[in-house]
Design a protein that fits this description.
By secondary structure, the protein is an all-beta fold. It has a single domain, classed as Lipocalin. The protein contains no helices and ten strands. The chain has a ten-stranded antiparallel β-sheet with strand order 1-2-3-4-5-6-7-8-9-10, with no helix packed on it. Strand 2 and strand 3 form a beta hairpin.
């Protein structure tokens, strides 16, 4: 579950995810999931509410080059969006991330690191219903973090989020604090 607020509560996003994963080995997995997304935006004194139900299929592969941890993820999403009217669209996502040890122990089970990631979103069906373009959005993220043990990381970073819409293009600047667990 994830709740995001921006512009002093003018926009509130609620996300809920349910996923079934299958691990082929320690490095490669597939997932099938369902996500619900609810957005509330305030324009002047009116509130606009949008909800989305999403089914997705995902392939993920993690690997190392020297001590750098890399992750590749591909995802296909079937999206049912309800704004003023309901419509269906499909989107593909490609994600690449790297965690680079800076000041850690030899095994990289504890210590400081820097990270970078990028994710590109493409509308592959019913582009006219979303932003009339194959390109949906791009999210670039850089951060620094601390690995407490092999299962828990804490990270703070900056995300540049570029998203063209039908009427205008949004360029968001996001500061993000996250705790990642892997038990």
């Amino acid at each position: 579950m994830e709740i995001k607020c921006s512009n002093f509560n003018e926009t509130i996003d609620y996300n809920s995810y349910r996923t079934l994963n299958y691990n082929f080995n320690k490095a490669t997995s597939v997932a099938f999931g369902f996500a619900f997304k609810g957005d509330r935006e305030q324009e002047n004194t009116d509130f606009q509410y949008t909800q989305e139900n999403r089914i997705y299929e995902q392939f993920m592969h993690q690997f190392k080059i020297f001590r750098i941890e890399l992750m590749l993820r591909g995802r296909l999403e079937q999206r049912w969006i309800n704004e003023e009217e309901s419509f269906f669209t499909q989107r593909a996502r490609a994600f690449l991330s790297a965690q680079i040890p800076v000041w850690t122990n030899k095994e990289f089970t504890k210590g400081f690191y820097v990270a970078a990631q990028n994710e590109v979103f493409l509308n592959i069906e019913n582009q006219d219903k979303v932003n009339e373009s194959l390109f949906d959005q791009n999210r670039t993220f850089i951060s620094t973090g601390y690995r407490w043990n092999k299962s828990v990381d804490t990270e703070i970073g900056y995300m540049y989020w570029h998203q063209p819409e039908m009427q205008e293009t949004y360029n968001r600047h996001v500061i993000q604090l996250q705790v990642t667990t892997n038990f």
